[in-house]
TrEMBL record:
EC number: 3.6.1.9
NCBIfam families named in the record: maf
Residues annotated as catalytic: D76 (proton acceptor)
Family: Belongs to the Maf family. YhdE subfamily.
Main location: cytoplasm
Keywords per UniProt: Cytoplasm, Hydrolase, Nucleotide metabolism
Function description: Nucleoside triphosphate pyrophosphatase that hydrolyzes dTTP and UTP. May have a dual role in cell division arrest and in preventing the incorporation of modified nucleotides into cellular nucleic acids.
Protein name in the entry: dTTP/UTP pyrophosphatase
Length: 197
């Protein structure tokens, strides 16, 4: 199993997201959480996964002192809607506005993951297409006021109430929409472990 292959490594998850941390626990991985502050600003010409690639690598760049057996995992997620990146809302009003825009339409959830070791790094990304049913303003206000999704890209958590009532369809990885495409995490960590044998 993966945890056996990684027993000689020190796995570091640089994310404060409880959803990502829970996924790592569910994979039965031994890991530590380390956070370093980064100003998450990206060049305005970047689009789509180029944004999340850039930010995942930017977060990794804050770690200057990795050891030989360290594997650092950094990531970033955006909601991409009609040519615009929707990050985390800064106010309840903005959260309601984001969800209202996406009501009855499709958007893409894009996540990039950067795997960094002392002498090398690799970034992978994944996109899931999500389609919302039309959502009433009453339902949007109830969701934002009750669940306060201020820490979520695109102002919603698919695993919460709004996911039960508003998701029409999903094309791709569900875990990616919750927090991280864990099938890619598994594949890349297995590859790193195999490459050092």
């Amino acid at each position: 199993m993966l945890q056996d292959h990684l027993k000689d490594f020190n796995l570091i998850l640089a994310s404060g997201s409880p959803r990502r941390q829970q996924y790592f626990k569910e994979l039965q991985l031994d890991f530590t959480v380390q956070l370093k502050p980064v100003e998450e600003i990206y060049p305005p010409e970047l689009k789509g996964v180029a944004i999340t690639d850039y930010l995942a690598e930017l977060k990794a760049s804050a770690f200057k002192d990795l050891n030989d057996k360290d594997i650092l995992v950094t990531s970033d997620t955006i909601v991409w809607f009609e040519g615009e990146a929707l990050g985390k809302p800064t106010s309840p009003e903005q959260a309601k506005e984001m969800i209202s825009k996406m009501s009855g339409k499709s958007h893409e959830v894009m996540t990039s993951i950067c795997f960094t070791q002392k002498h090398q790094s690799k970034t992978v990304n994944y996109t899931t297409k999500v389609t919302f049913n039309p959502i009433s303003q009453e339902a949007i206000s109830y969701y934002v006021d009750t669940f306060k999704p201020m820490d979520k890209a695109g102002a919603y958590g698919i695993q919460e109430w709004i996911g039960l009532i508003a998701i029409k369809s999903i094309e791709g990885s569900y875990p990616n929409v919750v927090g991280m495409p864990m099938h890619l995490v598994y594949e890349e960590l297995m590859a790193i472990a195999a490459s050092t044998r």
